[in-house]
Amino acid sequence: MSRRRVVVTGLGIVSPIGLNVSENWASIIAGRSGIANITRFDASAMACQIAGEVKGFDATQYISPKEVRRMDTFIHYGLAAGIEAVRNAGLDTPLPDPTRIGVNIGAGIGGLPLIEETHSALLEGGPRKVSPFFIPGSIINMISGNLSIQFGFKGPNLAMVTACTTATHCIGESGAEAAVSPLGIAGFAAARALSTRNDDPATASRPWDAGRDGFVMGEGAGVLVLEEYEHAKARGATIYCEVAGYGMSGDAHHITAPCEDGEGASRCMINALRNAAANVDEVDYINAHGTSTPLGDIAEMIALKRALGEH
Predict the structure, then answer these.
(1) What distance in Å separates the CA atoms of residue 120 and residue 116, rounded to the nearest whole number?
(2) C-alpha span between 250 and 14 (Å, rounded)
(3) Contact in structure between 101 and 157 (CB atoms under 8 Å)
(4) Per-residue pLDDT reduced to its tens digit, 127-163
(5) Topology adopted by domain 245-311
(6) Which CB contacts under 8 angstroms, 24+ apart, belong to 165-172?
């Protein structure tokens, strides 16, 4: 049985540099940064006081005001990006077999802001102050669930949670995030993972720089529509690119630190190349993790050299 080809036919994104695909692309071309001082809460007591906040976003453009109140912000972002991607792919019209369309959208952490608000309400007013919509408004699978309800997609409905690799795993197995909150910033800062270059937000994240001191938190969502090639071609869909290969691996090393010799990461890249039946010299671009952390950047560079040599 021949392997079926998979292509990308829809794009959607909400981020600190734009509320849709066109705005984000224009910001990237112009070299605009979305990192600035935190405005959503008082971060003056935090070691890290900078983040990438989404600005000017209105969730009621995508869902009703009643639904907005019942959901955490990360679900708003995920739905907005998902709706844009579905429309961009031309799949927002009735389809012959909705059972053949699945949804897989994950998040690295989930509904921290709503969790914080609900915990405060519980402490101040007791159990009666906890909303019945707290659980469905904060758990990660509700982006996929709500998007499938909105468009009637009846295929597999999934949500993956694998920290920074969530989005990549969703693509391979087929992310949204709003962790810019006091708990999110304080948690990563306590682990000494965040940059404290608060006086220069735009250049605080500086992968492989000698002065790097950690990453910068951000929020938003990105969604791709993946479609079987022949199906996309038959309906005249715009094809942006092909998902040629995919690889996974594990370090079995530490809960947060990467394996210093890059063995696990290099194995993952080698697996992806093999899966794509591609040679190293065919690689034109590397989308690095680039965490801007002292350990992470070195381990990643070693992994890249192990997998790709001097190419």
Answers:
(1) 6
(2) 30
(3) no
(4) 999 999 999 999 999 999 999 999 999 999 999 988 8
(5) Peroxisomal Thiolase; Chain A, domain 1 (3.40.47)
(6) 166/106, 166/107, 166/108, 167/106, 167/222, 169/106, 169/248, 170/104, 170/105, 170/106, 171/224, 171/226, 171/243, 171/246, 172/243, 172/246, 172/248
CA pair distance 134, 278, nearest whole angstrom: 46
Give the residues of the chain that fall short of pLDDT 50: none
Distance CA 176, CA 109 (A): 9
State the architecture of 8-243 in CATH terms.
3-Layer(aba) Sandwich (3.40)
Residue 175: per-residue pLDDT:
53
Query: What pTM did the predictor assign?
Result: 0.92
Cβ pair 6, 228 in contact under 8 A: yes
Query: What is the pLDDT at residue 176?
Result: 54
Q: How far is CA 252 from the centre of its chain?
A: 23
Rounded to a whole number of angstroms, the distance between the first and last alpha carbons of the chain is 34
Q: How far apart, in whole angstroms, are the C-alpha atoms of residue 142 and residue 147?
A: 8
